[in-house]
Amino acid sequence: MAARARGGERRAEILRATLEVIAERGYRGATLGAVAERVGLTQQGLLHHFPTKEALLRAVLEDRDRWDTGSGPSGGAGGWPLGLLVALVEYNAMRPGVVRTFSALLGESVTEEHPAREHFTRRYERVRADMAASLRAEYGERLPNGMAAEAVAPLLVAVMDGLQYQWLLDPEAVDMPAAFRAFVALLGEPPN
Fold first, then answer.
1. Is-contact 88 46, C-beta < 8 A?
2. Is the dihedral of CA 164, 170, 16, 103 positive or negative?
3. CA distances (Å), origin 103, targets 117, 137, 176, 189
4. How many other CB atoms are found less than 10 A from the CB of residue 19?
5. Which uninterrupted H or E stretch holds 13?
6. S-S: 79 plus which of 11, 130, 157, 185, CB 3.0-4.6 Å?
């Protein structure tokens, strides 16, 4: 039992180090050797825990989704209230390293052969569906502007991700939480 706990701790340490290395170098620039060195392992020792760079990437992405949703790779079931999305943006503003890693991986994943492409494609399908469910729960079938929740959901996701990029590039000029709250205000008040 103690060996399993130590293995879990080592795995978590490796995933944290991988986040750091990807945030610094991007996925393509990150090497197993750099991750291994950061956690005090040989590359062979790292391969004992994660047999390939792609397996390590999948584990990082799954853990990142689990941290954000509390539910693992399937995302939040049925969407989140808008107030909770605002809180998520505020939370992300306190963890630039994780946001930087996510943004670097997302940007790289648009290339055809990137190992995270499928993950992000599936993730965005789920996130758009969750956002539409969130909007329907708050507003019903139509928002105050008359648009359907499914039409606004991709815009909501685009604002969240776009603000992250702008904030990472110039955190002094972009107040990510305030800008997201302003966008949510543009949606109008939910009916009572």
1. no
2. positive
3. 13, 28, 14, 31
4. 22
5. helix 2-29
6. 130
**pTM for this entry:** 0.76
User: Using an 8 Å Cβ cutoff, are 99 and 164 in contact?
Assistant: yes
Q: Which residues contact 106 (CB under 8 A, 6 or more apart)?
A: 120, 161
**What burial class does residue 129 get, using C-beta atoms within 10 Å of its C-beta: 0-12 exposed, 13-18 middle, 19+ buried?**
middle
Over residues 175-188, the pLDDT tens digits come to 999 999 999 999 98
CA distances from 136 to 70, 71, 133, 140, 151 (A): 22, 21, 5, 4, 11
Alpha-carbon distance 181 to 187, whole Å? 10
Q: Name 149's Cβ contacts closer than 8 Å, sequence gap at least 6.
A: 131, 132, 133, 135, 136, 139, 141, 142, 143
Residue 75: alpha-carbon gap to chain centroid: 10
In the numeric block, which tokens belong to residue 53? 């760079």
